[in-house]
Amino acid sequence: MPLIQVRTNITKEKLTRDVHLKFSARAAELMNKPEARVSVTVECGLDMCRGGSFEPVIEVHIAAIGVDCREKTQSVVAGLSELLHEQLGLPLERIVFKFSNLQPFEVGVNGNTM
Description:
Blueprint: E1 3-8, H1 17-31, E2 39-43, E3 58-65, H2 70-88, E4 95-102, E5 108-109, E6 112-113
Parallel strand pairs: 1-2, 3-4
Antiparallel strand pairs: 1-3, 5-6
Helix pairs in contact: 1-2
């Protein structure tokens, strides 16, 4: 059950609900999870800088069970970076990812842990 946070200084007028939904669908596909189990929160219009620049930047934080090695995260980074680049025109170096590997007891839904 991936929990994904997308934080950016891009406005919500540019990062639309359509882009949000495309991101959710692509994340589910890349992580081999049913989209019904993927949660994506998008925070737009934040004061963010990277590398001493306030140019558009996106941070993607993904917390999920089983994201514990490069073999499981590389395709996710590549696929979601490509989507964000195509949809928003963002240079790849302005898209940053962070993964947190969760244990099943750290995730709960429907009144139960996984």
